[in-house]
Amino acid sequence: MQQHRPVGEPGRPFGVARAHPVDLEGPDPGQVDPAVLSALLDRHGWERRGGAAGRYARWILPGPGARTSLLVPESRAFPDSEELLGEALTALERSGTASAREVLVSLAVPSDEIRWWRDVPAGPTGASTWTAEEQLRSAARRVLLAGALAARGRAGYYGARFRRPAAAALENVLVQSAPGGRRLTAFVPVAGGRELAVRLHQALYAVREAVDYRRATGGMDAFDGAVEAGVSHELTEALVALVRGTEGARIGVAWAPAAGVPEECTDGDAPVEFSPGDLDVLREAGARYRHTEPAVSVRVTGTVVRMRRSGPRGEGTVRLHVIAGAEIPHVRMTLDEEAYRTAGHAHLVGLPIRVHGRLESRGGFRRLTGASGVVPVQVEEAERDRLMKSLQENLDFFEEACAGEEQPPL
């Protein structure tokens, strides 16, 4: 079997570093669909230059000094089809061009492609600054994170909610940046990531329409309805970061040929464009979303990780590591003296507590107000042992928090 070296540059995950199939090996010629390969070549700028009709096509990447030529069979019906596919893949790997690498990534892991373009002033000899490249990458990640948040649920402002699962959704996203810091492509695997791409695609068109409506009529009503399409404070702020300092920016989505076009979307849509003239409206919308997002009634279960009060008696502040009841990692609350003591007892014996209250949007849904009904929650023995071990490793802060009051018995 013909061996292929790893695809190189594109193997850079957007989220937390994790091994990805494309990091390990290139696409297997026996698994490549000729129609998919041809569609990807056409998408990434290769040109078809003849070939035997009905048997194979010749593809060439145009440009000065272009030497790579590929023979791609029309189907797998001919005896030499797999051999031709193997030779084409080898030629792509040896090409070393960004276009060839992008084709190989999409073949190895069927992915929807999300692309960003930024029109930034060029430096000497056409080069861009290091800052411009970092801004593009940072803004692109924020846009993807907003799409991942929308895939978890609709909200005008998420704050700390859904952050962990949304960030986890980016772990297997690969990124390929073009020289110059003006273009970047993210490969979102169809398996596990298509919902993200669909929601982002819909949200981008919704925010474009809402901005146009605001500039034409002066009304912000369209932004209220755009929330259902996935528009949020997080997305508008990400777009501000993308457009700021440029002459304009665009975002486009291209669907994986191997998976087809999602039912909710259409193929061949033009990239969505934003200009510096949109910045004031985007900022206004982001502030509107943040200020109007309502508080949420919740019943949170969590383990006490910090306790503090100014004296040996009275109310105190408690911080919980959230186990259930809210899509946030931690929450702070103020408890009266009795509830504070209940939380302290539960912590000492290694039990989580359950509490009712309202998550306030101010501060990013990190604070619970009107806390009531604080009670310890029984857990399985193994989980209790784990919590007790964690307690013993962090006794110092608790002893300091309880200084001046009698320690409850274990």
TrEMBL record:
<protein>
    <submittedName>
        <fullName>Uncharacterized protein</fullName>
    </submittedName>
</protein>
